[in-house]
From TrEMBL:
PROSITE patterns: HTH_GNTR (PS50949)
UniProt domain HTH gntR-type: residue ranges: 9-77
SMART domains cross-referenced by the UniProt entry: HTH_GNTR
UniProt entry keywords in alphabetical sequence: DNA-binding, Transcription, Transcription regulation
Name of the protein this chain belongs to: GntR family transcriptional regulator
Organism: Pontibacillus chungwhensis
Pfam family membership, one: GntR
Parts forming coiled coils: none
Classification lineage: Bacteria, Bacillati, Bacillota, Bacilli, Bacillales
Amino acid sequence: MDRELAVDKPIFQQIAEKIESSILEESLPEGDRVPSTNEIAKFYQINPATAAKGINLLVDEGVIYKKRGIGMFVTEGARKIVLQKRKRDFFHDYIVPLRNEAMKIGITVEELQELLQEEES
């Protein structure tokens, strides 16, 4: 995991996103043990409670699970869960505002598609 944390998002959310990214990149495969809250806290030099809050977000989403006395592990199907979540977030964070701005300035959906296709070339 990258050691850099941003200032524009809560740290616990960034911790969850870093773990999600490791799952998407398959550097943290399904079934593997997730670093403990203390390991994460030490690595990022943050409070263990903050690390635990990030971990608990992923537990609530079904991305990781706890084996009592052993640790946290990546759920089977976690990559699919994270991918669906990231696609949904991408749509709401980027596509909806893009479409709304395009409509304000008179760009049609077809013109947007053409612009995107031009960028691919």
